[in-house]
Design a protein that fits this description.
Elements lengths: L4 E11 L5 E13 L4 E5 L6 H9 L6 E6 L2 E2 L9 E4 L11 H11 L4 H14 L5 H4 L8 H12 L6 E5 L7 H16 L3 E6 L2 H7 L2 E6 L2 E7 H4 L4 E7 L3 H10 L10 E6 L2 H13 L3 E7 L4 H9 L17 E3 H7 L1
Parallel strand pairs: 3-8, 3-9, 6-7, 7-8
Antiparallel strand pairs: 1-2, 1-4, 2-14, 4-5, 9-10, 11-12, 11-13
């Protein structure tokens, strides 16, 4: 079975006006995404996320490299019937209700009016806008979170196999973000594959199976969320620690210390070291309350890779946002 998305050595360059150089919006990107997973595509504004999505949708062409979607070249007309795209800020006609908007787009997709109205009713209910008060509201009265729900409903008209969501939780409050995450998890349960482009690291961490980090057009890391966030330290909590236990603990882990006979100390996540500490506790009549691995967050991972923190607006504090190349390198790829 072909991968849902297969990207090989992809480049996209844009010349800088009046200068003998170019910007690498996407720089030698290689990624494979299997069917049925929610894949997180992480990066700051200007990292190359939206450019990559536009190439996969066939809206723009790469400078070099290959990309396939559902086993066909990116932009294949037949494949477009099986995919959907939700941009960061979808636009709707303000005077319509949610059901009217979805009905309108369903008809554009080829459904007959009655079938379009029925499909719209189903989808509006699914995204949580089916109450009487919401049904009668115009889009102009909707919050951004409600607009995102309409966008998700619209993206599901054709019952797509593959969904491209570009910053679906950007600018939302905590409750709206949670609701959108819940909708994405429901779609995963239905067997949908999702390509989730985002700088909202907390949301990605809660819904994605695998993630990648792209920075200045380059892929910096990729892997399973659990593996990437596995910590290198563990917290060990004990009680009834004897002076002799503390002395032996200092020998095993000089940085560890238990004051007053009870407390938590942090040591390297090494199976041999942890086993020795357990044996020492048993020998010295010290009770071990818990042994908890320290898990990193996606923000910790991002900072380690990129060297700066993401702001709420999606920029990186103190980091340049483009990847420039010389005129000669630009000519090579063109």
């Amino acid at each position: 079975m072909p991968a849902a998305i297969d990207i090989k050595n992809l480049y996209k360059q844009y010349p800088v006006p009046l200068k003998r150089e170019a910007v690498n919006a996407v720089d030698n990107l290689t990624i494979k995404i299997e069917e049925g997973e929610i894949f997180g595509f992480l990066g700051a504004n200007g990292a190359g996320k939206t450019t990559t999505i536009k190439i996969l949708l066939g809206l723009i062409y790469p400078t070099q490299g290959e990309a396939s979607v559902l086993g066909k070249p990116a932009g294949d007309i037949e494949t477009k019937h099986k995919i959907a795209y939700l941009p960061e800020s979808p636009y709707f006609y303000e005077h319509m209700t949610a059901a009217e908007v979805v009905t309108f787009y369903a008809q554009l997709f080829g459904l007959k009016r009655e079938d379009a109205k029925k499909r719209a009713e189903e989808l509006v209910d699914f995204v949580g806008l089916g109450s009487k008060s919401d049904r009668n509201k115009r889009i102009s009265e909707f919050s951004k979170g409600m607009r995102q729900r309409v966008g998700i409903a619209q993206s599901l008209i054709n019952n797509p196999t593959l969904l491209f969501y570009d910053e679906p939780t950007s600018g939302l409050d905590a409750i709206a973000r949670r609701d959108i995450r819940d909708l994405m998890l429901q779609l995963k349960e239905q067997g949908k594959t999702m390509f989730l482009s985002s700088h909202q690291l907390e949301d990605v961490e809660k819904v994605c199976h695998r993630v990648s980090v792209i920075h200045k057009g380059k892929l910096r890391t990729i892997g399973l969320v659990d593996e990437l966030l596995a910590g290198e330290r563990v917290d060990i909590t004990v009680s009834g620690a004897t002076p002799s236990f503390n002395e032996r603990l200092k020998t095993l882990a000089p940085e560890a210390n238990v004051l007053g006979g009870a407390g938590t100390f942090n040591v390297k996540d090494d199976a041999g070291l942890v086993a020795q500490i357990i044996d020492t506790a048993r020998a010295e009549n010290t009770r071990i309350i818990s042994i908890i691995p320290k898990r990193r967050t996606l923000e910790d991972l991002f900072v380690n890779i990129v060297g700066g923190r993401l702001t709420d607006e999606g920029s990186i504090e103190g980091a340049p946002d483009v990847n420039r190349v010389s005129a000669n390198k630009y000519k090579e790829l063109n």
